[in-house]
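Lab meeting prep.
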Amino acid sequence: MEKLFRLKEHGTTVQRELIAGLTTFLTMAYILIVNPSMLGSIGDGMTPGAVFTATAISSAIATLVMAFAANLPVALAPGMGLNAFFTFTVVFGMGYSWQIALTAVFLEGILFIILSLINVREAIIKAIPANLKKAVAVGIGLFIALIGFANAGIVVGDSGTIVGLGSIGSGAPLLALLGLIIIIVLYTMKVPGAILIGILLATIIGIPMGVTAVPEGWSPVGHPDAPLLFQFDFSSIFSFQFFTVFFTFLFVDIFDTVGTLVGVSTQAGLISKNGEIPRVKQALLADAIGTVAGAALGTSTVTSYVESTAGVAAGGRTGLTALSTGVLFLLALLFSPLFLLIPGAATAPALIFVGFLMMRPVVDIDFSDPTEGIPAFLAIVMMPFAYSIAEGIVYGVISYVLLKIVTGKFKDITVASWVLFVIFMLRFFIK
C-alpha cells in the first residue's frame, strides 16, 4: 500500500484511508437508490434492477481507475442532474428512446477521453463564460429540487396556478417532508452520510405508513439483475436535437468534474503552488472511462462526486480512499433488494437536498453587469420552468452573445461561444 499510494508522503495511514473511503461511500451511496428510481421510471425495458447493477459497477470501475491511475481520494458515480437530464429532458421531453440517450452518453465519454488525452479541456473551460458555468450548476439544482418535490407529491399540477401544493398531511408527501427534515437535521449536525441515513430512516418510517411496500419473503441480500449491455442506437446522431443532448452531457460533465477535482484537491491540500491539480489528466480519464463503461452497462454519465470532500475531511489523501469506496460499490451489488425496496417518497428528499447543495455558486455570479447577470438568470430559470437542462444552456448562451453584441463587448465572446450561438439559433429554424 505504501509503495502503491505513497501514504507517508501524503501524511496518512491505511486505517485513516479506509475510514475515509467508508465515509465517502456513506455520503454518496444514495445514488444507488436515486438513480435506479429515476432512470427506472422510463420503463420500456430499462428496469430499476438493471440500472442499479449498472450504477454500482460503473461507479466501481471509475473510482478504481481514479485510485490506481490518479492516486486521488475522489470517488465517482452517475451524476445527479445528468440523470435527470437523461430521463426528463432527453427521453420524456424530447421523445428520444433511452437507447439513443445512452448513445449520446457513450459518444460524449469517447470524446471526453480524446479531449483529456490531448489537453483540450483547459481551452474548453476557458471558452465558456464563467458566470454561465456557475448558472448551469444552480439551474440544475433548482431542476432537481423541482423533480424531488413533484415525485413526492408535494408540488402538483394545478389548472389555475400552473403548479400548486399537494396534500401533505399524509402518505408519500408527508413521508418525504419527514425525510427532508431528518436529512437537514443530520447535515446540520455534520453527521457523515446524512442523505443516505435520511433515505433509510424515511423508508423504515414508510412501512407503518403504508408507503414502503415490503414483499412477502423479502430478503435484503440477493443476486443483482443483469445490466443493459451495449443498448445503443445511432439513428439520430446527426440531428441538431441530438447535438444539443450530446453537448449538454459533455458540457456539464467537464465542468462538474473539474469543479469537483479543484474543490476536493484544495480541501486535501493537494493543489500545487501554481494552482494545478496533481495528475489531472489521469483524473479526467477516470471520469471519461467511467462514462463510457456506464453507457455500455446502461446508465447515465459518470462524474466525480463533491461528496468526496467528506472522505477528505475524515483524513483521506490518496487513491486508497477511492479504492475502498470502489470496493464498497461492488459489495453493494449483493444487497440490491435492500436498495430497490426504497420508495420514491424516501428518495425525493435527497433530490431536494442535493438541489440545495447545488445552489452555492449563485453567490459568485456577477449580477451587477446585465450582460453577465441576465444570461445567467435565464440559464437558471429556464431549466425548471422549461423542465429542461438543455433549454437553460441554450437560452443562456444565446442571450449572452446577443447582449455582448448590442453593448459592443465583442472581445468577451469566445470562438466557442460564437459556434454555440450559431448552432443554437439554427435549431429554432431547422428541425
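Slide two material, second protein:
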Amino acid sequence: MSELYNKKPQVDVGIVSREVIKVSLKGDFMSAESCEIFKAGEYKVLIFNGLMSFEGRILKELHLVPVKSHSTFILHDVTIGVDFHWQRDEDQEFLGDLILKRTNGNITAINRLAIDDYLVSVISSEMSATSSLELLKAHAVISRSWLLAQIEKKNILNHNSDPYNSIYVTNDEIIKWYDREDHVDFDVCADDHCQRYQGITRVSTAQVKEAVESTIGQVLTFYGSICDARFSKCCGGATELFENCWEPVNHSYLQAFVDSDHGQLPNLSEHSLAEEWILSKPDVFCNTNDTHILSQVLNKFDQETNQFFRWKIVHKKDDLGYLIKNKTGIDFGIVEGLIPIERGSSGRIIRLKIIGTLKTMIIGKELEIRKALSQTHLFSSAFIVHYDEKNEEYIFNGAGWGHGVGLCQIGAAVMSEKGYSYREILNHYFRGADIEKRY
C-alpha cells in the first residue's frame, strides 16, 4: 500500500557556500531561533576568526523565516554551471526560508521551501518554461520522484553505521561516481550535480504551474518504492543502465533500449558495434535539429552548445597529458593511448585505460572519464578515439549529452510534439514503473 505524506513535504536546497555571502531581504524576515525581526535590506554574512558573523552576532546557524508568504530574498553572486563551459555568477531570488550554517570554514546558504515550489523552479531551470504541457508534466513527475528518492536515501544513509563509499582506488585503477551523498547539511544542491534550481530567477509560466499542480503528489514507483528517476539532456539514441554510472545497484525500471518506438538495441558494449553506432545517425526520438523542439529543452545558456546528438572534439597529443594531469592530479606524461576497457549498454565507456609515458592507469565511471578529458566535461563517455599521426592529435567522436540514464529530455520533447501523453512518455523511459499519488 502506498504511504501518503501527512502534509506536503519540504526540501532543503544548498545554494552557495563561501566565506562571505551577501543577501538582500525583500520583505521582513524573522529569526526562527530568537523571533527577532530583520527588516528588508542588504546584509552581509562572513567568517570572522573561524566563526559566522551576522549583524555583529556570532552564530553557528541562522534560520530566517519570511513574515509574509510573498516575501523573498536575493543571494548575490551565485555560481551556476559549476565546472561546465557556461559557468558564471548571477544574483538569484528565492521564496521560502533562508538558513545560514557555518560548515568547514565557509558559510552555506540553504533554501527551505515546499517541494512543489521547488519543482516549479526546477522545471523552468532545467528546461524552457514555454515547453509543451505534456513534457512539463512528465518532468514534474520525474523530478518529484528523484527528489523524494534522494531524501529517503539520505535518511537511510544517516542511520547506516557503515560509511558510504563512492570511490575505489588501487595502484592501477580509480573507479569513482558522483551522486549526492556528499551533501550532509542539505537534501540536494542547486546545480547540475543534482537538479538545476535557480529559485524564481528564471521566468516561469502558468503552464509550468499547471504541470506541477495537475500532477500534485504523483511519483514513479516500482513495487511500492519511489523510483530514483534520472534524466539527461540527450541519450544519443540509446539509454544506459544505472549501475554503469553510479553505485553497482540494478534498478529494473531503468532499462537499456533504443530511444524509439521501434527497433532493437545493438550490443553496444562491443567496441565494433559501439563505433558503428556512434558514427551513425539512427532514426530515434532525440535525433532532431528542430529548433522549436530544442528550445523547449535548452535554455539560453544551454543553446551555447550546438552539439549533443553527435559531436566531435580534437585534443593535441602534447596537450592531452597536461589536461588530464590538471583535472585528475595524476601525471601520465605524454599520452600514448586511450583504450576502452568496458562499455555500457549505450556504448558509454565505463572503464578507460590511459597509457602514458610515465604511468598507465584505468579510470571510471562515466563522469570521471568525462571530467578527466575536458576542461569542463565531455558531453558523454559514449565516444571513440582515433589518433591522427600526421597532425599528432586525438580525434574524439561521440554520442549524446549526459549519462543517458532514464528520461532523455530531447527525446521526451520530440515525443510530446508527436502527441504522446506524459504517462506514455514516462512509460517509455521508466519501463515497468507505476505512477502513484503520495500526497
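Talking points for slide two:
Residues 133-158 form the longest helix (26 residues).
The mean pLDDT is 91.
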